Amino acid sequence: MNAIKLYHFPLSGHSHRAQLMLSLLGLDPQIEFVDLAKGAHKTPEYLAINAFGQVPVIDDNGTIIADSTAILVYLAKKYDTSGKWLPADAAGAAEVQRWLAVAAGQINNGPARARLITVFGAGFDPKDTIDRAHAVLKVIETHLDGREFLAADHPTIADVAGYSYIAHAPEGNVSLQEYPNVRAWLARIEGLNGFVPMPRTKAGLVV
User: Fold this and answer.
1) In terms of CB atoms within 10 Å, which end of the chain has fewer, N or C?
2) Is residue 37 predicted with pLDDT exceeding 90?
3) Which GO terms of the molecular function aspect are on file (predicted)?
4) Per residue in 150-169, pLDDT tens?
5) CA-CA distances (angstroms) from residue 12 to 62, 70, 184?
6) How many Cβ atoms sit within 10 Å of the Cβ of residue 198?
7) Between vectors from CA 45 to CA 112 and to CA 200, what angle results, nearest 5°?
């Protein structure tokens, strides 16, 4: 069996989610660099595997999965023999799904979008975006009071989905100094066996 192919752009937090999950599961993918700056994600060849022209995508020996959270679900269901990354019970699975929705919604519209402004020059309103980022961080800070992870008493794909853009929020001028529970949660993820970081840029706040 060939290695899983990961179509990847290193500065994409969405792409980092997939890379991180693969590493946490002990999987060594074949990295296919997608040069977003040169429009590689809009070529006919790439659009044939993801019509939305986004990273990441994985190709698991002919099974093509696009979308970062879909990839997390797929990898957990197929390769996690412990069953902990995506709980099988109804309540546990629902709690994970709730935080996947937060990652796709409030985190994407706050910390991720703030970083798009400073790193990639996206034309969003900085104040509104930073306000949105702090709104979701305040909720997560309260949620993590007395908890080590977002959805269970152990790490799940919910934590992987939330990590990348929150860890890099300062690059979007979103300070994490007021969120000690969030910073402790980030440190716990960074301490997991198999953790791989996302490259940092020089944009935003000095941390």
Assistant:
1) N
2) no
3) glutathione transferase activity
4) 999 999 999 999 999 999 99
5) 24, 16, 23
6) 19
7) 30
């099988």: which residue's tokens?
A: 88
Distance, CA of 6 to CA of 18 (rounded, Å): 8
The CATH label, of 3.40.30.10, 3.40.50.1240, 3.30.70.20, 3.30.420.40, for the domain at 5-79 is: 3.40.30.10
Strand partners, 64: 59
pLDDT tens by residue, 172-202: 999 999 999 999 999 999 999 999 999 999 9
CA distance 47 to 60: 17
Phi, psi of 193 (to 5 degrees): -65, 125
Domain ranges of the chain: 5-79, 90-190
User: Which H or E element spans position 101?
Assistant: helix 90-102
Find all residues with CB under 8 Å of 204, minimum gap 6, and list them.
115, 118, 119, 170, 171, 172, 173, 174
Rounded to an integer, what distance in angstroms lies between the CA atom of residue 152 and that of residue 178? Answer: 24
What pLDDT does 128 receive?
97
Q: What are 77-132's pLDDT values in tens digits?
A: 999 999 999 999 999 999 999 999 999 999 999 999 999 999 999 999 999 999 99
